Amino acid sequence: MPRYGMLIDVFHCIGCYGCVTACKNWHNISAGEKGRKHLVDITEGEYPLVSRWIFPVSCMQCDIPSCVSVCPTEAIFQRQDGIVVTKQKECIGCGECLEACPYKARTIRAGMGKADGCDMCVDRIDRGLLPYCVASCAGEAMVFGDLDDPGSRISELIKQSNAQPINPHLGTKPKIFYANLHVKSPLEQVWPFTG
Questions:
Q1: Does the predicted model carry a pTM greater than 0.90?
Q2: Which residues are registered as beta bridge partners of 41?
Q3: Cβ atoms 98, 76 nearer than 8 A
Q4: How far apart are CA 26 and CA 184, in angstroms?
Q5: What is the per-residue pLDDT across 18-50, written as a single tens digit (0 to 9) for each?
Q6: Cis upstream peptide for 192 (omega within 30°)
Q7: Residue 147, pLDDT score
Q8: Domains of the chain
Q9: How far apart are CA 159 and CA 166, in angstroms?
């Protein structure tokens, strides 16, 4: 059984919002509503030595997802392939998962009153397709695949680039890895993200 994850190479992210827009379109999220994916924009330094980092963030698809353990109706669960999914019919909109997520990557969908978060487009994955954000990335900054297959493209790229998850000290073992992210500021400053 695969254990799916994603690599995001920030050198290739052009900040076009293509992944954000594609995600909202695929999941019928209105333009003004907080979506499943957001872009973080960090500028560091002073002129003329300025660095700017733009990269997408979403549910970190943790191996130890705190949202799953606090859900009173078991509406949030982790599939055998490691993907965290929300069963909308069983969600009561209590917000416990929002409070439990250290990345603040979950939201209550407007008009539905139900919790929502990235599920890596499981409906597409189950049909052999890539998550919509990956398929629509103009800069080819996102790579999706099996983290447990050492020969997979994602595993090789993670090893070559020494990609790391954001804030691994939070203890949830995220499966979203970032390559070439050399931010000097503590990344806690980007949470909670909005978009």
A1: yes
A2: 54
A3: no
A4: 34
A5: 999 999 999 999 988 889 999 988 888 899 998
A6: yes
A7: 98
A8: 4-187 (3.30.70.20)
A9: 16
- State which amino acid sits at residue 96: E
Rg (C-alpha) for the chain, rounded Å, is 16
- Pair of tokens at residue 42: 């960090």
Cβ-Cβ contacts under 8 Å for 109 (sequence gap 6 or more): 29, 33, 115, 116
Which of 43-47, 115-119, 138-142, 189-193 is the least confident region? 189-193
Quote the Cα angle for 129-67-191, to 5°: 85
Is pLDDT above 80 for 188?
no
CA 169/CA 161 separation, integer angstroms: 20
Beta strand 114-116 pairing with 107-109: antiparallel
Separation between Cα atoms, residue 191 and residue 195, nearest integer Å:
12
**CA 38 – CA 133 distance, rounded (Å):** 11
Q: Single out the residue of 125, 133, 4 nearest to residue 57, CA to CA.
A: 133
Contact call for residues 39 and 46 (beta carbons, < 8 A): no
CB 104 within 8 A of CB 193: yes
